[in-house]
Design goal:
The protein has about 240 residues and is mostly helical. It has eleven helices and two strands.
């Protein structure tokens, strides 16, 4: 067996799956595109603190990368980027509150002391941001906290819940071959839905948490309705 071909075979299969998924899951991709437009607009809505803006743009980039991964149906692989997406949005909130922390973030790699200080300032960025958000929307803040923790189980860390569902077993003439399915067209839609849900929750942390932006929340509510309708479609399909 020419093992050097394995990567090329995976890349070809992944490319074919992604191209097909864009067509066969057109409605799901369209919904994700609508959310991405909202995230992109929100990321650039406030420019007063450049480092915070940069981090929001990074969050949007991570969201797009997760969509790209979801198109091959390998669900566990979307969560590291989605977790980084959420963390970037929270880092931006921390720096907007204290702009001087932008330098701490930028100088993280200067030396060990700088690294330690950066960890101290940003290690609980998600917790801090959710606490602030909780003053506006307690239930929604709880959803984000639960989601952030669940991503560790679902793929951000190599825990059992992220690996077992992808196990596949094939019988040969002499033995059983056990491996992981890395390209799974049947799981594309549910993977895209995960990206949408987590991306939507992350977008809530891109707005000003000190002053209500009514237009932002009207659009966010419409996207949340879209998410709920999509979830009903998925659950209805399973029931059928």
């Amino acid at each position: 067996m020419d093992t050097s071909r394995s990567l090329y075979q995976f890349l070809e299969a992944a490319s074919d799956c992604a191209k097909g998924a864009i067509q066969s899951n057109a409605s799901a991709v369209r919904r994700c595109a609508e959310l991405d437009a909202f995230i992109e607009k929100s990321a650039a809505a406030r420019l007063q603190v450049p480092t915070a803006t940069l981090l929001r743009l990074s969050a949007r980039g991570m969201f797009c990368a997760s969509i790209n991964t979801a198109l091959i149906g390998y669900r566990a692989a979307i969560f590291p980027t989605l977790r980084a997406c959420l963390e970037a949005a929270c880092y931006a909130q921390v720096i907007e509150q204290k702009p001087e922390l932008g330098d701490v973030w930028a100088k993280r790699h200067r030396d060990q002391d700088a690294r330690k200080r950066c960890r101290a300032e940003f290690g609980d960025a998600v917790k801090k941001t959710c606490k602030r958000f909780g003053k506006l929307m307690p239930e929604n803040a709880g959803l984000i906290t639960d989601m952030y923790d669940s991503m560790i189980d679902d793929g951000a860390h190599p825990n059992v819940r992220s690996i077992i569902p992808s196990i596949k077993m094939e019988e040969t003439n002499t033995h059983f071959e056990v491996g992981l399915g890395l390209v799974l067209p049947s799981r594309v839609e549910t993977s895209l839905f995960c990206c949408f849900e987590i991306g939507l929750f992350t977008s809530w942390l891109m707005t000003d948490l000190d002053e209500i932006d009514e237009n932002f929340w009207i659009e966010a509510a419409n996207l949340n309705d879209m998410k709920n309708e999509w979830e009903k479609e998925i659950l209805g399909g399973r029931a059928g």
